[in-house]
Amino acid sequence: MIESVSLMDLPSALPPPPDTSDPNVLQAFAIVQNGYLAAHGVLNLGRPDPQQLRYHQGRVTSELIPLLDAISTSTPDPAIIPWSYVTAKSLADLYNCLSQREAVAQHRFDSRITVEMYTDSYLAVKKRQLPPFNR
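The structure assignment produced for this chain is given below.
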């Protein structure tokens, strides 16, 4: 079951990693941060598209979490452990929030299609039931 997370529970940005001079760690963190900010931005949209939300869910699981894992395992500094935990928790909360919004957006999208299909079918039936026009 997905933990309920609101947008207000998410930090607006991820905390920077502990002091490091490794350019690979800094570059990997920049990618993770940019991905987090992009997904967070989509959540701030009034009515995001289900496809946008699924894209960012996939990006969290296939790109951001593996990069966080690479950062955590490639840095010998013990200060990376608490930072990794906080960052992983933020990414998990982001994923859960994306999942919740995607479910709502998909339901809204499905409902709209059903209404449109029903309306189109109803109009087609009514059109066939109209008597012919006599002059």
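Interim note for the steering committee: Residues 21-129 form one domain. The chain has one domain: 21-129.
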